[in-house]
């Protein structure tokens, strides 16, 4: 519950940054809605990364910070497409072009969908608990610990959410 509250506080700050920059770009700089949405979302993503990394999930494993950063921005990019896709559908597809309609589409509906996706993906893939092994995490999530490789998977056997090579590297780190 505490994690959700912190995530929500960081998200609220990101929301304020997102809405302020979106409206600044549209009304002051007269930029197109989608361009304004992308600019505001990129600034909000950076704000949210800093808040989540150094406050919400500061106790999580920092051994893989490069992987974490890449995944954070990957999942944030997917959420940005969701958010701005709703705006594009509303503005260009359905013809709702008023500033209020743009704000509702982007900052209420799109952001709501994006937030649900981000919370799940950050918690599951990006900010992993310290010492969380694939098998342990699988048990928590009710999944089988070992997954058979998918066709074309390069022959890797997945243990929980980690490839077997990553699992071995984790064991080496514990033995040091």
TrEMBL record:
Signal peptide span = none
Known InterPro entries for this protein? GtrA_CellWall_Glycosyl, GtrA_DPMS_TM
Disordered: where is this region?
136-176
Q: Which domain of life is it from?
A: Bacteria
- Cellular compartment(s): Membrane
Task: Please indicate if the UniProt record lists Membrane as a keyword.
Answer: yes
Name the family the entry cites. Answer: Belongs to the GtrA family.
Q: What name does the UniProt record give this protein?
A: GtrA/DPMS transmembrane domain-containing protein
Q: State the species of origin.
A: Streptomyces cacaoi
């Amino acid at each position: 519950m505490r994690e959700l509250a912190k995530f929500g506080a960081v998200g609220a700050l990101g929301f304020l940054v997102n809405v302020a920059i979106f409206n600044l770009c549209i009304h002051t700089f007269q930029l197109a809605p989608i361009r304004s949405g992308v600019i505001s979302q990129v600034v909000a993503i950076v704000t949210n990364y800093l808040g989540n990394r150094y406050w919400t999930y500061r106790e999580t494993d920092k051994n893989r910070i490069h992987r974490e950063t890449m995944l954070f921005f990957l999942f944030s990019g997917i959420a940005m497409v969701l958010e701005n896709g709703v705006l594009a559908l509303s503005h260009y597809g359905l013809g709702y072009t008023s500033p209020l309609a743009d704000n509702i589409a982007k900052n209420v509906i799109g952001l709501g969908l994006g937030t649900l996706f981000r919370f799940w993906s950050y918690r599951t893939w990006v900010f992993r608990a310290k010492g969380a092994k694939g098998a342990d995490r699988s048990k928590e999530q009710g999944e089988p610990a070992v997954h058979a490789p998918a066709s074309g998977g390069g022959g890797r056997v997945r243990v929980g959410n980690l490839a077997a090579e990553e699992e071995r590297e984790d064991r080496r780190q514990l033995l040091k």
